[in-house]
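Pilot study result, target chain (125 residues):
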Amino acid sequence: MAFSAAKGKLLSVIGDEDTCVGFLLGGVGEINKNRHPNFMVVDKNTAVSEIEDCFKRFIKRDDIDIILINQNIAELIRHVIDGHTQPIPAVLEIPSKDHPYDATKDSILRRAKGMFNPDDFLRST
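Predicted structure:
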């Protein structure tokens, strides 16, 4: 992570207004040299195709290491998120004010569960 920070890698956000504003107030907002922001505010009038296009732009950008997305919005583009298998940028699903986090819907957590056997973590005595 320190290496990425040294190179100026960004965190991006796709979320509702409250989520985006919170992260922007925290200082994560950035507009690159091509005038493209690293965030997208999604509301009830936002087309699913716009969200898909934004996500695809974010995963292609070499200045973004982490994409935060509200889980309820991730559900709208689940097929696109599940198709992203590269480790970077990492896609992290987060709750929103109106939609709590549901671990059963998180694609990264589902993939991780398939990689490990709980018995691997038990010490033999």
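One observation from the pilot: The two ends are 36 Å apart (CA to CA). A full batch analysis is planned for the follow-on phase.
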